[in-house]
Design a protein that fits this description.
Blueprint lengths: L1 E3 L2 E3 L1 E4 L6 E5 L12 H7 L3 E5 L8 E2 L10 H14 L5 E5 L2 H12 L4 E7 L7 H4 L5 H6 L1 H6 L2 H9 L1 H12 L7 H8 L7 H12 L10 H8 L8 E6 L21 E6 L7 H4 L1 H15 L1
Parallel strand pairs: 4-5, 4-7, 7-8, 8-9, 9-10
Antiparallel strand pairs: 1-2, 2-6, 3-5
Helix pairs in contact: 1-13, 2-3
């Protein structure tokens, strides 16, 4: 645990202390165990690997009861910058998916001096709340059903009461061909018992839909993020061939957002949304490859 910004962050630190640093960031509803096989592979290859619990997950806690349990994208991203400062890490390669990929995308775009390279599952995920207001075709809206559920107090109460069942359903629909075990699921589900978990998750999705406000301290960063800043650092975008979560098919929709060295990789074999856990060898290799690109 380490105090960083507004949080006491829980994290794992593997590998040689003086090795090049890799920071691995999980999504929702997942936790650091998405990298249970990736992290040791990278540590064995000589990297110092940091795997952090995002706010509202695992052993990460807010330092003050008065702090808003804010899930907006800028807050989560600056948590990780604060973690780097607390650990005296100047620069790292990031490997991430889902919420974690959005966080890593933001750091790569806005603080490129802190990001030596990026492995991002599903590409460019920085949110623009005004753009989100535009209606999508019904099939696309249907894929985001839980955002609308979370917009209601009924949905909040349902997630509070049934968070494990909810998470299992998301795992099954986002990775329809992944036969995860009960033990694998329960290992991660313990992280959702965090006392701030429901507040952070509900705020995240309500903020995206402009149904909840963020904090003024993040307004300027959010304004800059809404402009869709380019990512200039070396990047590998990955996608599973059986990803059941909402995502772009191919990289045509976001390719122009990456102006540095770039590669797009689709991992075959029924790989779903939790790509690091479902394809740890391929994910770890992508991190190694993008690190070699940085020199």
């Amino acid at each position: 645990q380490v105090d960083a910004g507004v949080l006491d962050v829980g994290y794992v630190d593997l590998g040689p202390a003086r090795g090049p640093v890799v920071i691995l960031l999980h999504g929702w509803p997942y936790d650091i165990h998405s990298f249970a096989e990736v992290a040791p592979r990278l540590a064995a290859a000589g990297y110092r690997v940091i795997v952090a619990h995002l706010r509202g997950h695992g052993s990460t806690r807010f330092l003050s009861a008065a702090t808003l349990r804010n899930g907006q994208q800028a807050a989560v991203a600056l948590d990780i910058v604060a973690l780097m400062d607390a650990l005296q890490i100047r620069q790292a390669v990031f490997g991430a998916f889902d919420w974690g990929a959005r966080t890593a995308d933001i750091i790569a775009a806005m603080f490129p001096e802190r990001c030596a390279g990026l492995v991002s599952v599903s590409g460019y995920l920085i949110n623009n709340r005004e753009a989100i207001k535009a209606p999508l075709p019904p099939a696309a809206e249907y894929a985001w059903w839980y955002q609308f559920y979370f917009a209601t107090e009924h949905g909040r109460a349902g997630y509070e009461k049934h968070r494990r069942e909810f998470a299992r359903l998301i795992w099954q629909t986002a990775s329809p061909k992944w036969n995860f075990s009960d033990a694998q699921f329960e290992r991660s589900a313990a992280s959702f018992d965090n006392p701030d978990h429901v507040d952070v998750v509900i705020h995240n999705y309500r903020w995206r839909q402009s149904l909840a406000e963020g904090e003024a301290r993040y307004d300027e960063l959010e304004r800059r993020l809404a402009a869709g800043p380019a990512i200039t650092v070396p990047t590998i975008v990955m996608e599973g061939d059986a990803n059941g979560a909402p995502h772009f098919t191919g990289d045509a929709a976001f390719r122009k957002k990456f102006s540095g060295p770039y590669d797009y990789r689709v991992v075959a074999g029924g790989i779903g949304h939790n790509l690091p856990q479902e394809a740890p060898r391929e994910f770890a290799q992508a991190v190694i490859d993008v690190t070699r690109t940085t020199g």
